[in-house]
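Input record (one chain):
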Amino acid sequence: MPIMIEAPNDAVEVGFPADTANMAIARTVAAAVAARADLTVDQIEDVRLAIDEAAAYLITHASPDARVRGRLWVEGPTFHALLSCSTDATSTPEPEAFSWTVLSALVGDIDREIVDEDLTMHWALARDHSVSA
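The corresponding structure, as predicted from the sequence alone:
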């Protein structure tokens, strides 16, 4: 499904080399932004785990020397994550079954696409429940 959302100008941006050793950076920043959405402690932990799974998916399909880029923001009671990295894939890669099951169980709908050699994904988590990405 095409990603039809753009991050607002006040979104928090995070970027790091596409290496699993750097995923803690994304988890920490995501937890800080999620706290602004008044999410529960359990939901903030869900965001941390979801960012971890999403970053792992992107890193797996990243081109050599790629950087994972993220824009994270709160809109009302909803936390949004828009993540991307450059890829050599020509079509949207299929996710690994277990990781995707975990991610979709945490956040519900996940949009992903490749545009201009960038693999991009968006998901959102609301205070009360997951929302359509």
